Amino acid sequence: MKHLIVIVSLLLIGCSGGASRNPGLDEGFKLAYASQQTIADEKLTLTFTEINEDSRCPSDVQCIQAGRATITLSLIRDGAAVATRTLTLPGAETATYLNYSITLLELAPYPVSTHQTTASEHVATLVVARQP
Questions:
Q1: How far apart are CA 83 and CA 14, in angstroms?
Q2: Residue 16 pLDDT class (50, 70, 90 cuts)
Q3: What is this structure's pTM?
Q4: Cis before residue 58, ω within 30 degrees of 0?
Q5: CA 102/CA 96 separation, integer angstroms
């Protein structure tokens, strides 16, 4: 029984990280607030630095407007200057950096009226692609 608890704990720790392991171009990956992820083949590092706004209508409320969520990423590529880009939902918005496009697909968790989400709970789903 003790071994089972250790195994389950290790699996949960491994799954709870805010960034997926070794994403490549054109692959969706999750990035937790205040975490960073490197696309190793491109030597490109993204850091989720700020939640500028999360005014999305809570899922358990009827609203006149859907609201929006806006985040800021810090980006650096092997020797290039650090840059910041802001992405907004709804809709998959894309920002550019050097010869890359970065798309914000989702920001979790989606708000509910009974819980005030803290910054540390947020996880962005992103895709990085090379521009044509």
A1: 30
A2: very low
A3: 0.80
A4: no
A5: 6
φ, ψ of residue 121 in degrees (nearest 5): -85, -15
Residue 66 — pLDDT band, cuts 50, 70, 90? confident
Residue 49, amino acid: T
Tell me how many degrees the CA angle 89-56-29 measures, rounded to the nearest 5. Answer: 45
Q: What is the token pair recorded at 22? A: 């070794």
> Residue 42: beta bridge partners?
none
Following DSSP, what letter does each residue of the chain receive, concatenated? Answer: -HHHHHHHHHHHHHH--SS-SS--TT--EEEETT-EEEEGGGTEEEEEEEEEEE-PPPTTS--SS---EEEEEEEEETTSPPEEEEEEESS-EEEEETTEEEEEEEEESPPBTTB---GGG-EEEEEEEE--
Residues 6 or more apart whose Cβ sits within 8 Å of residue 130: 25, 99, 100, 101
